Amino acid sequence: MQFFKYEGQVLCETWSQENDSRRAMHEKTRKIALKSDSFNQKLQRKSYFFVTDASEDTITIGAISKDSQHLQKQLEEYMKSVGIELKDTCLEEITFGAIRNMLQRANQRDYIPDDDEVLEQFGLDKLDYRYGRGCRFDEGLIESSSKREIYAAAAQLLSNETLIPELDRIYAGKAKNNLTGHPVHYIIQTDDSDIRKKMGRLLLQALYARNRLHSKRYCFLELRPGENLSSTVYDCLYKSCFGGTVIVRYLADDDTEDDYAACGRETVEVLCETMKKYCNQVLTIFCLPRECTTSKSMFYENLGNTSFVELKEGFASSDRAAQFLKTLASEHGTRANQKLFAKLEPDKGYLAPELRGLFDDWYNYELKTSVYPQYQEIATVKSEVAKAEPKGSAYHELMEMIGLDGAKKVINQALNYYKAQKLFADKGMKADRPTMHMVFTGNPGTAKTSVARLFAKIMKENDLLSKGNLIEVGRGDLVGKYVGWTAPTIQKKFKEAQGSVLFIDEAYSLVDDRSGSFGDEAINTIVQEMENHREDVIVIFAGYPDQMETFLQKNPGLRSRIAFYVPFADYSSDELCRIAGLIASKKGLKLTEEAGRKLLDVFNAAKSTSDFGNGRYARNVIEKAKIRQATRLLEKDFDLITSEDIATLCAEDIEVPAASKTSIRQIGFTA
Question: Which of 249, 317, 401, 657 is the most core-located residue (most Cβ within 10 A)?
């Protein structure tokens, strides 16, 4: 089906409405409408002609035709029937959107009774630009080009192994006239939008030039898996493209997920059913990502006996890549130099997206240094992003904490990895979500829980987790009391932790000595859920170092899913002094030098006791010092106490703990 606009100047002055009265204009319009309706009824929906504008000395006519071979004859008969004579005429094919607008104008001016009824007569009433659910519809017209121009443009693309051989087949033999049917349809596979558009354009230009296409019009439809149009809408779309082309870009992001593939299968089945129905009337071009084995297999499974030619960009050698870069430079009005070619590796194959990335980097540098040298000191946006610190207050809070070098290093590595994926995407780095599950090992009071809580917030503030909560659990929260309770309980906790961090403290308590017990069921279920939620839940196991090792040996699958092992060493006496000073500072207090020296002695003595609590112990020391300070101040003359006295902790406020007869059993790391 084709749509046309026919325009020309009137020969008979009686058609000019410039000086007509309103009544005379209305009468002329009514006559045109009646004569047009009478003529169109005789055509029995094979074609439809209508006047859309008859102002001043120009008349514009619209036409819908199922068979353009007889269009010129039918147009002459229509003009004679309506009584119109034109000179300096121009006939051009137009899009559906254009003919729909012409019908609307004709309806508004009473040249036709109802524009919707006209579309319904030809089965076009369901065709719309707004299909909904994310589908994008567009259309265009093929631009004419000579064979020499088509081959010259094809030679500039990285597709010599597929596109040029197909052009040779298209131009082989004599062009066929009045023949309907398509021996093959096409699949274009590339991740480069420019390559995809140029391949499609050159292909359609060659096919139209050889009469393999009777219409210049093509429709473009963009679909994602699960975005299904009804068979009625597909039918309407294909009917509107009789003699032309339907181009479908299928955005298959991931072929590995079962649910995703199931959605895609339904989308492909409905589309292919219509494609097969009209395979001789409409050419179809499917555009797929370069690597999408599962999606392409689904298309082939549903396309029956139709034949397809696959057009795929190839890898360019260094010499071919250099020529491609020269072409890009020429298109940008500049000349490639040795700095650009130096980016190419001798024995490497290049795809178009990577070469465009190399060129863009070089071109931007050339603009700043050679073309506009006054801007060479201005840093690029990505350079600024690369240097920028992570977002949010939680990151700065963690960095200000004393010690914890291992934890800080791991978190910085995770944040840098995601930053690199964004910055280097145009250089070929693929987006990936690595496993982030962790083990925190250390003695009590080494800030394992505090770091886990901050880590969850940091991941949220930097858009790596959607919620950023810390869900703390122990054995009692995971292991059920009765047979069959454990797995559902753990699954519920993982669901609660979606978008957050699941913190399992004293994780080794899940293990007991009896194989096949509730503890084994808990570990097996945790391993399975870690895999099921690897993209939206981060699990952190915490506990003493040696007992955590026993825990990990219990299930080999568990160890393989742990990405980071973060040791939390016991704090040194100096670090404990700094922690105590930081705690006091947050409470609006300061320590005298003598108090600081006494704290050092206290921590040196405490580190060898059995109940030493690291940072927790330092907090307790400051809390007790506040209590002793209050007693000390109350013993003084009230009128002599200053605000400075209230804000100061003295040496006598620091309590020296009683000596313990039991030395601590060293576990893990010592200061």
Answer: 249
Polymer length in residues for the chain:
671
211: left (phi over 0), alpha (psi -120 to 50) or beta: left
Residue for token pair 């013993």:
635
Question: What are the residues facing 472 on neighbouring strands?
Answer: 503
pLDDT digits (tens, 9 = 90+) for 509-562: 887 544 446 677 888 888 888 888 888 899 999 988 888 887 887 777 788 888
C-alpha span between 354 and 351 (Å, rounded): 6
CA triple 205-211-216, angle to 5 deg = 50
Judge contact between 89 and 5, C-beta under 8 A: no
Whether the CB-CB separation of 570 and 449 falls below 8 Å is answered with no
Instruction: Indicate the burial class of 128 (C-beta count within 10 angstroms; 0-12, 13-18, 19 or more).
Output: middle
Which pLDDT belongs to residue 263?
Answer: 61
Report yes or no: 85 and 24 within 8 Å, Cβ to Cβ: no
Instruction: Tell me 522's DSSP state.
Output: H
Q: Whole-angstrom Cα distance, residue 256 to residue 262? A: 11
Looking at residue 516, its amino acid is G
Per residue in 348-358, pLDDT (tens digit) is 888 877 888 88
Q: How far apart are CA 424 and CA 588, in angstroms?
A: 46
Q: State mean pLDDT over 139-168.
A: 89
Q: Side by side, which strands form the sheet with 564-568?
A: 470-473, 500-505, 537-543, 438-442, 564-568
CA proximity to 266, closest of 236, 291, 304, 230:
230
Q: What are 299-305's contacts with CB under 8 Å, separation 24+?
A: 299/187, 299/250, 299/268, 299/272, 302/268, 302/269, 302/272, 302/273, 303/272, 303/275, 303/276, 304/276
Residue 524: what residue type?
A: N
Tokens of 116: 């919707």
Separation of alpha carbons 570 and 556, rounded Å:
29
Return the sign of the alpha-carbon dihedral for residues 300, 303, 306, 308. Answer: negative
Residue found under tokens 């049917």: 181
